[in-house]
């Protein structure tokens, strides 16, 4: 790609607030097929008490609530959580409506419960901030608030050869300084989710695969959406956003269609484990 095309497609540097909004408006919907497949398989609906770890801006919670579930969500990103509150807790919402909290499951539970019947960790990049060991500890903490036998759902990338987004995520891994960011994106191993579940004291009990293509209106939206995931934060700190965006455009160019849209087929894998 010529320098002129790179400059034309590269968005302006973004603030943390705009990245949270980009997540809510561009990127979060890419995982809708995953949410739907899990909720359908587990018959999520009235009687389900759901805890979402890394709930983001609340789209998965909104879909579960529409099925009749009682929903709670926690996230480490206060900006995303604020957008979830806009979606799930509009002015005049009932006092017994969704609970949202910053941090771990303790933020949405009191000494008397509730006992959750479903726990989800849908974001395949959730461990980028804590590493797998940190995520295993978070899952174990969440499982302590779940009823015995309840499902805990983990999600991750499918095989690299079936995930077009891998080419973009390799940019994040290559540009990030390993001394400053030891928890970086890496390709998913075949047994990663099972190992994570066992480390958290959970028992694997089935899995599935779901097609979750990443589709964007144009190259600028694609770069903004991917930057909003958090997978590129370490790379931005190690270099700068302009450099990361430039290399992202180059990595995404094979998926740029004649009409200007960007289409990246991906397969995600989910694991159902039991408390």
Automatic annotation (TrEMBL):
<keyword id="KW-0489">Methyltransferase</keyword>
<feature type="region of interest" description="Disordered">
    <location>
        <begin position="1"/>
        <end position="20"/>
    </location>
</feature>
<protein>
    <submittedName>
        <fullName>Class I SAM-dependent methyltransferase</fullName>
        <ecNumber>2.1.1.-</ecNumber>
    </submittedName>
</protein>
<dbReference type="GO" id="GO:0032259">
    <property type="term" value="P:methylation"/>
</dbReference>
<feature type="compositionally biased region" description="Basic residues">
    <location>
        <begin position="1"/>
        <end position="11"/>
    </location>
</feature>
<dbReference type="GO" id="GO:0008168">
    <property type="term" value="F:methyltransferase activity"/>
</dbReference>
<keyword id="KW-0808">Transferase</keyword>
<dbReference type="InterPro" id="IPR029063">
    <property type="entry name" value="SAM-dependent_MTases_sf"/>
</dbReference>
């Amino acid at each position: 790609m010529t320098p002129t095309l790179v400059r034309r497609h590269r968005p302006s540097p973004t603030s943390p607030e705009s990245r949270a909004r980009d997540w809510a408006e561009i990127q979060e919907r890419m995982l809708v097929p995953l949410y739907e497949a899990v909720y359908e398989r587990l018959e999520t609906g009235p009687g389900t008490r759901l805890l979402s770890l890394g709930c983001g801006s609340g789209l998965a919670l909104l879909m579960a609530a529409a099925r009749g579930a009682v929903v709670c969500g926690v996230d480490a990103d206060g900006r995303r959580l604020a957008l979830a509150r806009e979606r799930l807790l509009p002015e005049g919402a009932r006092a017994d409506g969704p609970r949202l909290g910053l941090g771990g499951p303790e933020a949405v539970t009191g000494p008397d419960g509730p006992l959750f019947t479903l726990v989800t960790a849908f974001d395949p990049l959730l461990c980028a901030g804590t590493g797998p060991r940190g995520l295993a500890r978070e899952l174990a903490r969440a499982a302590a608030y779940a009823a015995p036998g309840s499902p805990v759902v983990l999600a991750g990338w499918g095989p690299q050869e079936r995930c077009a987004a891998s080419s973009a995520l390799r940019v994040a891994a290559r540009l990030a300084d390993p001394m400053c960011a030891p928890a970086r994106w890496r390709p998913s191993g075949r047994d990663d989710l099972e190992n994570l579940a066992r480390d958290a004291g959970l028992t694997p009990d089935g899995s599935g695969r779901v097609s979750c293509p990443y589709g964007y209106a144009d190259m600028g939206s694609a770069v903004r959406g991917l930057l909003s995931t958090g997978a590129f934060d370490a790379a931005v700190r190690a270099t700068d956003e302009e450099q990361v965006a430039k290399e992202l455009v180059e990595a995404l160019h094979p998926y740029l269609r004649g009409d200007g849209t960007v289409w990246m087929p991906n397969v995600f894998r989910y694991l159902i484990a039991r408390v």
